[in-house]
């Protein structure tokens, strides 16, 4: 009896600590979260002794910058890259080696990797 | 005059509840609409890609800044220390890949050197974190 009496007398929980905690959570989520959409692009390096097959199956893409791309020595514009690779694929090319030369940035590499991954090539490896 | 006196008396404590409602609302908005950042380095600006494929939760990450400095879980490491860390990861669980968080203006050759060293260390699955272009 005494116990229930005591419970009844207890005042309601204060709102201030609740607001404190909610504000804290709000600030944490505002700082720690992002609205960006991320993506992970696979990058495969060449391995020693991993390659089999003839050299004629491999196309070499040299990348000096987004404006300076050479496929098997032929200078190509970025929007002509997929067409050029499609043409090489009809000639029996199945793989490509992508080599950035000094001056190429990570952004250029990602762009070219994405374009080449969308072609009929079986694999694209990067070398230094 | 009498009206004002009544208003002044009622002011305190009463206005708390709408405030909490709004703060709760904003909190729930952030919880639902956003995702936690996968990495915390604000110096790094990611390269843009056209597609969005989730990097997956709990991937191992190494941050590569434009100036060539490398960070693993917030601490700066040297090339050699990264090599040791990569070998450790490969030994620990080879099926789990490594995601590189590289600045978009970093030299591509330097990135590939790190990809190659990861492959040499035994990490088979190396990915590069990008953000989807809007």
Topology:
The complex is a heterodimer of chains A (128) and B (134).
Chain A: H1 2-9, H2 15-32, E1 33-34, E2 38-42, E3 58-65, E4 68-71, E5 74-76, H3 81-90, E6 95-100, H4 106-117, E7 123-126
Parallel strand pairs in A: 3-6, 6-7
Antiparallel strand pairs in A: 3-4, 4-5
Chain B: H1 2-10, H2 16-33, E1 35-36, E2 48-49, E3 60-64, E4 70-72, E5 75-77, H3 79-92, E6 98-102, H4 108-121, E7 126-132
Parallel strand pairs in B: 2-7, 3-6, 6-7
Antiparallel strand pairs in B: 3-4, 4-5
Brief rundown of the structure:
The complex is a heterodimer of chains A (128) and B (134). By secondary structure, chain A is an alpha/beta fold.
Detailed description of the structure:
The complex is a heterodimer of chains A (128) and B (134). Chain A has helices at residues 2-9, 15-32, 81-90, 106-117, and strands spanning 33-34, 38-42, 58-65, 68-71, 74-76, 95-100, 123-126. Chain A is rod-shaped and about 85 Å long. Chain A folds into two domains: 2-32; 55-126, Nucleotidyltransferase, domain 5, CATH 3.30.420. Chain A is of the alpha/beta class and 128 residues long. Chain B is of the alpha/beta class. Chain B has two domains: 2-33; 48-132, Nucleotidyltransferase, domain 5 (2-Layer Sandwich), CATH 3.30.420. Chain B has four helices and seven strands. Chain B has helices at 2-10, 16-33, 79-92, 108-121; strands at 35-36, 48-49, 60-64, 70-72, 75-77, 98-102, 126-132. Chain B has a six-stranded mixed β-sheet, covered by helices on one side. In chain B, helix 4 (108-121) links the parallel strand 6 (98-102) and strand 7. The mean pLDDT of chain B is 82. Classes of the chains: A alpha/beta (128), B alpha/beta (134). At the A-B interface, helix 2, strand 1, strand 2 and helix 4 of A face helix 2, strand 1, strand 2, strand 6 and helix 4 of B. Strand 2 of chain A pairs antiparallel with strand 7 (126-132) of chain B, so a sheet runs across the interface.
């Amino acid at each position: 009896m005494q116990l229930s009496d005591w419970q009844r007398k207890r005042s309601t929980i204060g709102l201030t600590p609740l607001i404190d905690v909610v504000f804290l959570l709000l600030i944490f989520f505002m700082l720690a979260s992002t609205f960006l959409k991320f993506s992970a692009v696979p990058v495969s390096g060449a391995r020693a002794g991993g390659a089999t097959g003839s050299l004629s199956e491999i196309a070499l893409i040299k990348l000096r910058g987004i404006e300076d791309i050479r496929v098997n020595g032929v200078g190509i514009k970025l929007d002509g890259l997929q067409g050029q690779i499609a043409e090489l694929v009809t000639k029996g090319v199945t793989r490509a080696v992508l080599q950035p030369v000094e001056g190429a940035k990570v952004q250029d590499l990602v762009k070219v990797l994405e374009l080449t991954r969308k072609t009929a090539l079986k694999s694209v490896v990067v070398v230094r | 005059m009498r009206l004002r006196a009544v208003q002044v008396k009622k002011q305190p404590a009463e206005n708390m509840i709408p405030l909490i409602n709004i703060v709760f609302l904003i909190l729930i908005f952030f919880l639902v609409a956003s995702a936690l950042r996968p990495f915390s380095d604000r110096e790094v600006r990611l390269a843009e890609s056209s597609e969005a494929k989730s990097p997956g939760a709990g991937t191992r990450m190494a941050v590569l800044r434009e100036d060539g400095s490398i960070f693993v879980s917030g601490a700066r490491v040297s090339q050699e220390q990264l090599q040791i860390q990569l070998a450790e990861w490969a030994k620990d669980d080879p099926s789990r890949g490594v995601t590189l968080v590289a600045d978009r203006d970093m030299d591509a050759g330097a990135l590939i050197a790190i990809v190659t060293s990861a492959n040499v260390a035994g990490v088979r699955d190396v990915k590069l974190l990008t953000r989807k272009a809007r």
